[in-house]
Automatic annotation (TrEMBL):
Homotetramer. PANTHER family: ALPHA-AMINOADIPIC SEMIALDEHYDE DEHYDROGENASE. Coiled coil: none annotated. Belongs to the aldehyde dehydrogenase family. The gene is LOC109728684. It catalyses: an aldehyde + NAD(+) + H2O = a carboxylate + NADH + 2 H(+). This is aldehyde dehydrogenase (NAD(+)). Residues 38-489 form the Aldehyde dehydrogenase domain. Keywords: NAD, Oxidoreductase. One of its GO terms (molecular function) is aldehyde dehydrogenase (NAD+) activity. SUPFAM superfamilies: ALDH-like. It comes from Ananas comosus (Pineapple). The active site is at 267. Its EC number is 1.2.1.3. It holds the Pfam family Aldedh.
Length: 509
């Protein structure tokens, strides 16, 4: 396999990576009989390492072993499954800084965000350990004498997890930690452009399974393209598929899963708004908008894309934002002080440039930014655009650091603009007035799955259920009672008497 020649890549060997890697973990061993792909650093588009992707034979072998492993894993008591997930959390803690650095190197987000992403999986492990002793059903009073009625939750068997480049390992954590304690095996297809993160994360999990003499196939992973994604979506042995990505691809996944009566957990696009009322704390709002719009170079599904400003404070907020945007340090995400790293791929940079042309053609006025940066990397300027809320481009998700600003007069109007897009993931309002706060979070307020007050649209905590409505797909991951999606509910009625009273008082013969 050789060793890394570039100094900045030396840490990768600590994660078990080499210049050439096998990209499939099937039946407890590494292989890869499909095409060879290159992982590139978005800061300079140079190759970091190569990966042998999955072939359809690798997929079949992996799934056959996974089906067998599922029969073993679902019989392990839930608290013992929790203990395995606890050990996975500890193994990730030991590699936190190396894995976080890899996220920055391969995906392009700044180092504090890369480390934060891995911390999120560690936190999910902790959450899931506690959950492993609380997968409780309920006892329901029966209307029939000498009958007992209860709900029992059983594992689904296998959960497919298809993740996106922007959170190349955290989204796996949201799903896999809970799926595993619920008694499911996991089949993971990582994003095709972040294969090293897929391999490094899988090696950590595989090490824990091996140490506990458990079948490696409990966690099966593939690096690969849409072929593997389609195989997962169409595979009747996978009762639940969790997919993160675009609405367009999500619809295709949903159709394939529906055709075989499987279940889908979809986390699709967002088009999130922050509303700033006339009584808002302006300083707090400006800091929040900066993080929400510029963080991860605008490549979060929870990124703030629309800023709705009350007309009385419009100019004040715009002026302050333009000033802070001019001070944003753009550069290598691994360097201290960088706030804006590159977009993930050269194609994303082209999309940005095309998007700016469309914005201008629809009457958008660039207040700051608007250009890509001439360099070997995928860098663009953080951009603020003054535009009408009715411009068609505002209804779409341009995956980059572009913020649309627009003004409103009344709360009713602001809520209507917030709710006027197809997506329904995250939303936030800045105000100090209780009557506005409670209207905003109530039935006639925001139509999103995440409804915030005086904080940004991004940076969700794992304790709550994460996900959105409408074109965002309707799935929920991480906390609250999201675990119920990874299990099947059985309503059990037990007759411990000798009579046969029927429900609803029916007399039959």
């Amino acid at each position: 396999m050789g060793s890394f020649t570039r100094k900045e890549h030396h840490f990768l060997s600590e994660l078990g990576l080499a210049p050439r890697n096998l990209g499939c973990f099937v039946n407890g061993s590494w292989k890869g009989n499909g095409p060879v792909a290159s992982s590139r650093n978005p800061t300079n588009n140079q190759v970091i390492a190569e990966v042998n992707e999955a072939s359809i034979q690798d997929y079949d072998e992996g799934m056959n072993a996974c089906v067998d492993a599922a029969k073993i894993w679902m019989q392990v008591p839930a608290p013992k499954r929790g203990e395995i997930v606890r050990q996975i959390g500890d193994a990730l803690r030991a590699k936190l800084h190396h894995l976080g650095r890899l996220v920055s190197l391969e995906m392009g987000k700044i180092l504090p965000e890369g480390i934060g992403e891995v911390q999120e999986i560690i936190d999910m492990c902790d959450y899931a350990v506690g959950l492993s002793r609380q997968l409780n059903g309920s006892i329901i009073p029966s209307e029939r004498p000498n009958h007992m009625m209860m709900e029992v939750w059983n594992p689904l068997g296998i959960v497919g997890v298809i993740t996106a480049f922007n959170f190349p390992c955290a989204v796996l954590g949201w799903n896999a930690c809970i799926a595993l304690v619920c008694g499911n095996c996991v089949v993971w297809k990582g994003a095709p452009t972040t294969p090293l993160i897929t391999i490094a994360t899988t090696k950590i999990i595989a090490g824990v399974l091996e140490k506990n003499n458990l079948p490696g196939a409990i966690f099966t992973a593939f690096c690969g393209d849409a072929m593997v994604g389609k195989a997962i979506a169409c595979d009747a042995r996978i009762p639940l598929v969790s997919f993160t990505g675009s609405t367009k691809v999500g619809l295709t996944v949903q159709r394939n899963v529906n055709d075989r009566f499987g279940k889908c957990l979809l986390e699709l696009s967002g088009n999130n708004a922050i509303i700033v009322m006339d009584d808002a704390d302006i300083q707090l709002a400006v800091r929040s908008v900066l993080f929400a719009a510029v963080g991860t170079a605008g490549q979060r599904c929870t990124t703030c894309r629309r800023l709705l400003l009350h007309e009385s404070i419009y100019q004040t907020v715009v002026d302050q934002l333009v000033e802070v945007y001019k001070q944003v340090k753009i550069g290598d995400p691994l360097e201290k002080g960088t706030l804006l790293g590159p977009l993930h791929t050269p194609a994303a940079k082209e999309n940005f440039t095309r998007g700016i042309q469309v914005i201008k053609s629809q009457g958008g006025k660039i207040l700051v930014g608007g250009f890509h940066i001439e360099s070997e990397g995928n860098f663009v300027e953080p951009t603020i655009v003054e535009i009408s809320p009715s411009a068609p481009v505002v209804k779409e998700e341009l995956f980059g650091p572009v913020l649309y600003v627009m003004k409103f007069q009344t709360l009713k109007e602001a809520i209507e603009i917030n709710n006027s897009v197809p997506q329904g993931l995250s939303s936030s309002i800045f105000t100090r007035r209780p009557e506005i706060i409670f209207k905003w979070i109530g039935p006639l307020g925001s139509d999103c799955g995440i409804v915030n007050v005086n904080i940004p649209t991004n940076g969700a905590e794992i304790g709550g259920a994460f996900g959105g409505e409408k074109a965002t797909g309707g799935g929920r991951e991480a906390g609250s009672d999201s675990w119920k999606q990874y299990m099947r509910r059985a309503t059990c009625t037990i007759n411990y008497g000798s009579e046969l009273p029927l429900a609803q008082g029916i007399n039959f013969g």
